[in-house]
């Protein structure tokens, strides 16, 4: 299976508001895919469609070659950790593992118990007494022990402190390496995505703006700084993603697979955050503050 998630013209409407529009994607299998976008961009809607918790209004979606949640076999292929890393406050850690074993035919109790021991969680402790980081790790354990082919994580570390977030992501990468999982990780923190992902999708205003290999994105984007000029005079192969101007200077972020040959430009490498913010803005104004506020 070369594709984990495939969508064609996918859309979801809530009454009069479209939460996702004309989404066409081929999310590769065997990768750790980062899904980035501002609040309200459609990230959670896309992931809930992928796990079968929502039905499309328009278009189609396939997950691992089948319709989401179409039967027990399809459900067993996908693990899901929702945005609030759901656990049951009144149940103990051991209760959660027993519940996972009863609900999932492919449950691997050895993996579950080894992870709980590694994390130092007391099996008798109620989930309501765990820290936010511990609850997130428990939810991740349930998702991994299900032995899915695809693990979908919707902002699982959004409420965690930096240390807990780093530990969660390190454990996630260990699980990917050990079990060969395909992963889709939604986050509004570009630094987290850059740390663990090798493929990037950016959603803005419910539409896909980027879907590409991380290394290819970094290699094909360039920051150009030089004398002020009209962007319409650039070569046709240079797609302008963002532009800012002073009286004498122009600064551009462009995408191209060709070398920059114009000697009047000073060429530098933008960071992944620079690239993502430029696509989030989708404009050519010199004020960058609104773009920064989108992610922070």
From TrEMBL:
InterPro entries recorded: AAA+_ATPase (IPR003593), ABC_transporter-like_ATP-bd (IPR003439), ABC_Transporter_VariousFunc (IPR051782), P-loop_NTPase (IPR027417)
Keyword Nucleotide-binding included in the entry's annotation: yes
SUPFAM superfamilies: P-loop containing nucleoside triphosphate hydrolases
Domain ABC transporter: from-to ranges: 5-230
Domain of life assignment: Bacteria
Gene Ontology molecular function: any one: ATP hydrolysis activity
Key words, A-Z: ATP-binding, Nucleotide-binding, Transport
Claim: Cell membrane is one of the keywords in the record: no
Record-given protein name: ABC transporter ATP-binding protein
